[in-house]
Amino acid sequence: MTAMLSARDITVRIGPRPLLESVTAHFHAGQVTGVIGPNGAGKSTLMRVLAGLVAPETGAITLDGAPLPPPGSRARARRVGYLPQGHEVHWPLTARRTIALGRMPHIPAFGTPGERDSAAVDTAMNRTATAHLADARVDTLSGGERARVMLARVLVTETPVLLADEPVAALDPYHALAVMDLLAEEARAHRRAVAVVLHDLTLAARYCDSLILIDGGRVCAAGPAEPVLTSGALSAAYGVRFARGVLDGGAVITPIHRLDEEPSCSLN
Ligand SMILES: Nc1ncnc2c1ncn2[C@@H]1O[C@H](COP(=O)(O)OP(=O)(O)OP(=O)(O)O)[C@@H](O)[C@H]1O
């Protein structure tokens, strides 16, 4: 299967230290690809490279086999949507106006938003359960509410590639499942390539078609989700023994205890 978004041989260095080393990763249309790995592994750095916010020292990123438009351009913004980790916002805009900013790449210079833009905002607010927050200032929202508003802002951009860095980190279980359902729908119904950074391996097992396990800036395992989640590389990367099973028809992966060995699969 041809990948929609491909990163090949990406190396990112800050000073002498490589944050990513020869990372190759593929993200397919119609699939949710999970990016997993321990703290500091390089997951967010990979997302930032894919979003065009960090220039790699080596390597290339292609969309459908062609180079991406330059970072910061409207053409790039129409192709790759990026939901960063954390959702820090300091601007005193309402949730609706914040979400509407996601339509900017579609509005001509000196143009004004039209009915199509307004409808896209309404749809995204309904899908992220944020319609009731429309007039609330985004800097006054709770962490989980703000996370859903920022997701809506990315959804309205309607990009073929959607990068979400820990989109469920601030969410309660109901909203975490709702957001994962939504990302899966974006992939399956709209044929988008969805990349999602996750720490919850049960969500990774249930929602991701394929996984990229990163540790120490390198890819330790990649491919269909199940073999990655059952591989020794998973325990080695996290330094944790996991229990795996099926409960109520769904996969469950939970950490049991730390391993004695120093966690690392980057030498495997
Ligand atoms: N601008 C920077 N300058 C120096 N070091 C950086 C910079 N950005 C990231 N790093 C380092 O690169 C490593 C990878 O960071 P990154 O944010 O990609 O990790 P991560 O896998 O997303 O981790 P987490 O699960 O904790 O969010 C970390 O050790 C981090 O301290």
TrEMBL record:
| Database matches in Pfam families | ABC_tran (PF00005)
Which keywords annotate this record? ATP-binding, Nucleotide-binding, Translocase, Transport
Record has Lipid biosynthesis as a keyword: no
Keyword flag Ribonucleoprotein: no
The domain of life for this entry's organism is: Bacteria
The ABC transporter domain is annotated at 5-241
Molecular-function GO terms, alphabetical: ATP binding; ATP hydrolysis activity
Q: What does this protein do?
A: Part of the ABC transporter complex HmuTUV involved in hemin import. Responsible for energy coupling to the transport system.
Listed PANTHER family: HEMIN IMPORT ATP-BINDING PROTEIN HMUV
Q: What family, per the record?
A: Belongs to the ABC transporter superfamily.
What is the recorded name of this protein? ABC transporter component
Q: What is the lineage of its organism?
A: Bacteria, Pseudomonadati, Pseudomonadota, Alphaproteobacteria, Rhodospirillales
